[in-house]
Design goal:
The protein is of the alpha+beta class and about 425 residues long. The longest helix is centred in the middle third of the chain and has 30 residues, at about 140-170. The protein has helices at about 15-20, 25-40, 45-50, 60-75, 90, 115-135, 140-170, 240-250, 260-270, 305-315, 325-330, and strands spanning about 195-200, 200-205, 225-230, 230-235, 275-280, 285-290, 290-295, 345-350, 375-380, 395-400, 405-410. α4 (about 60-75) runs antiparallel to α7 (about 140-170). It has eleven helices and eleven strands. About 35% of the residues lie in helices and about 10% in strands. It binds fe (ii) ion. Fe (ii) ion binds next to α7.
Length: about 425
């Protein structure tokens, strides 16, 4: 299950290195069952709706993660594999031009057929073929890493299922409850902010694929040197209470706090609070996966865009950390908390390739590299991130106006 039910300390890279890896077949079965479990409380109608162009229907996520194994592993490598339905090749292709045609992303909610039942049959068909393939194939290193990529890909979609579902349910005036037991705010932020001081200098960040056999996406490599000036970083995330003070001080009505594009967005979209916040007769509530709740003032602020994080930091007399500052601090500063399992943390760094980054040959090379334009890096992981999917070198990325992910703020100065 997801970190929505786990403490953040359960996902350190140290823990993961110490635990013997289960077989690839076991990892596959467990992960696929986790995805099914996320959709289990939902009706077919819940799984059909697409609430905005950025979000995808749950049914599409269930099919597309299956399509990934079928397209990149079974079709090229399993001689006896027969496609479940040739039409799915286009329907459930997300963005791989090297594979061929694809159905437009904003129109995924219009795919009323295949039915949810048929998508579940598709999952079962590919599960059976994958397990037979994994049991009967000598897993050369290249194939092993491709299957592991498919597993990590599905973990990313598990988080997207929760973020997309939350947005979809939030559009329903009856504020439906996804699960009673879900806790998005289990990490409290009661202590005053303390600052960790780092001397900086020449430090190393990024994933060293030769020295470290743990899985990492291609965009985390290569490990490389970065020069940092001395800096301070906050030991915890910005809380709802602190963010409310920014709002009360006119944060959304002062142009001097905002980047130009951010100020345009404030005015055009009439932003006046984080996504999912509502003020009714002076009381603030927040829509969550467990329904509408009174705003928890001690919880880390969530669902803010890069523009809001940046404006808040300016108001607070601080700034956002760069990616290198964040990564170095989490590796070197003992006092930091809430870096995994709470909120994704916006950085001031544009999402670009690390120096020496190369794109893999073939369609699978489209996974990360072609998105290195007009986006910012987020570090850490969130309460919706799959268990075991967090590491220091991880690079999440979104456009600066997006705020439907579980994104929050850590300050630096
Ligand atoms: Fe995908």
């Amino acid at each position: 299950m997801h970190q929505l039910t786990k403490p953040e300390s359960s996902v350190s890279s140290v823990d993961r290195n110490a635990i013997a890896q289960p077989s690839l077949s076991d990892q596959f079965s467990r992960l696929r069952a986790q995805t099914d479990a996320l959709a289990a409380p939902l009706s077919p109608e819940d799984c059909q709706v697409q609430s905005m162009a950025d979000a995808s229907p749950i049914k599409w996520h269930l099919a597309h993660t299956t399509w990934f194994f079928e397209t990149f592993i079974l079709e090229p490598y399993a001689d006896s594999y027969r496609a479940f339905d040739p039409a799915f090749k286009v329907l459930f292709n997300s963005y791989y031009n090297g594979i061929g045609e694809k159905h437009p992303r904003p129109e995924r909610g219009l795919i009323s057929r295949p039915s949810l039942d048929r998508v579940r049959q598709y999952r079962a068909h590919v599960n059976a073929a994958m397990l037979e393939f994994l049991a009967t194939t000598s897993q050369a290193a290249a194939l092993h890493s491709l299957v592991t990529l498919g597993l990590n890909h599905e973990q990313q979609h598990q988080e997207l299922m929760l973020t997309d579902l939350k947005h979809m349910l939030s559009m329903n005036p009856s504020a439906p409850v996804y699960l009673e037991a879900v806790a998005e705010n289990m990490v409290a932020t009661k202590s005053a902010t303390a600052w960790s001081s780092l001397t900086g200098g020449l430090v190393e960040i990024g994933h060293d694929a030769e020295q470290n056999q743990q899985f990492a996406f291609d965009n985390e490599s290569p490990r490389h040197q970065v020069f940092l000036r001395p800096y301070q970083i906050a030991n915890r995330l910005v809380s709802n209470r602190e963010y409310l003070a920014f709002i009360a001080d006119g944060g959304y009505s002062r142009h001097d706090l905002w980047l130009s594009d951010g100020w345009d967005r404030v005015r055009f979209d009439r932003w006046c609070a984080p996504m999912y916040w509502r003020e009714e007769r002076g009381a603030w509530t927040e829509f969550t996966l467990y329904g509408t709740q009174a705003l928890d003032l001690d919880a880390p602020v969530c669902h803010v865009s890069f523009f809001e994080a940046d404006a808040y930091a300016r108001w607070a007399g601080a700034r956002l950390p760069t990616e290198a500052e964040w990564e170095h601090a989490v590796s070197a500063a003992d006092a930091l908390t809430q870096y995994f399992g709470s909120r994704w943390q916006w950085t001031a760094s544009a999402y670009l390739g690390h120096p020496g980054f190369t794109v893999a040959a073939g369609a699978v090379g489209e996974y990360n590299g072609k998105f290195m334009c007009n986006q910012f890096v987020l570090k850490g992981s969130s309460s919706a991130t799959a268990e075991g999917h967090s590491r220091v070198t991880y690079r999440n990325f979104f456009q600066p106006e997006k705020r439907w992910q579980f994104s929050g703020i850590r300050l630096a100065r």
